[in-house]
Design a protein that fits this description.
Radius of gyration: 22 Å
CATH architecture of the largest domain: Beta Barrel
Number of domains: 2
CATH class of the largest domain: Mainly Beta
Order of helices and strands: HHEEEEEE
Organism: Falsigemmobacter intermedius
Pfam family, one: Phage_HCP
Strand order of the largest sheet: 1-2-3-6-5-4
CATH topology of the largest domain: Thrombin, subunit H
Helix content: under 10%
InterPro entries: Phage_SPP1_head-tail_adaptor (IPR008767), SSP1_head-tail_sf (IPR038666)
Distance between the termini: 64 Å
Protein name: Head-tail adaptor protein
Structural class: mainly beta
Strand content: over 45%
């Protein structure tokens, strides 16, 4: 395999003709690919638990950690009857932009969206520091 000298690649890129053998795109089209602002249509709040010791023993207090824009996709739901009661739950995937504060989200945190409280079950990085995919479950009791 014969490769072009590095100088030829730089000249093609500087001239705007080719970027790695393909037509060049503006930087705005290459950054955050697949994550348009229009897709981030949900206001999401992440809460973190703090345990404080009161005179009656330890108490867990949930306080807001960060509020950000994201998207939600419901991936499954279920109902089950137990002890004469019907319990329902929904599992959703939330997609948010990855930045310093959002990378601090942990599975022990809670996610609030649309009046529901979700328990976070998983966090996955999509792309290299581009997006975070948060899987969470909300109970409907």
């Amino acid at each position: 395999m014969v490769r072009k000298p590095r100088g030829d690649q730089r000249e093609a890129h500087a001239g705007g003709a080719l970027c790695r053998g393909k037509p060049c795109q503006p930087l705005s089209a290459r950054v955050g690919k697949g994550m348009s602002a229009g897709a981030l249509d949900r206001r999401i709040t992440i809460r973190r638990a703090t345990v404080t010791n009161t005179g009656l023993g330890p108490t867990t207090i949930w306080s807001d950690l960060i509020t950000l824009w994201g998207s939600r996709k419901d991936i499954s739901d279920r109902e089950r009857a137990a002890a004469g009661m019907v319990q329902g739950s929904v599992i959703s995937r939330f997609m948010v932009r990855s930045f310093t504060a959002s990378r601090g989200i942990r599975p022990k945190d809670r996610l609030i969206e649309g009046g529901l409280t979700y328990e976070i079950t998983g966090i996955k990085e999509v792309g290299r520091r581009d997006r975070l995919e948060i899987t969470a479950e909300a109970r409907m009791d």
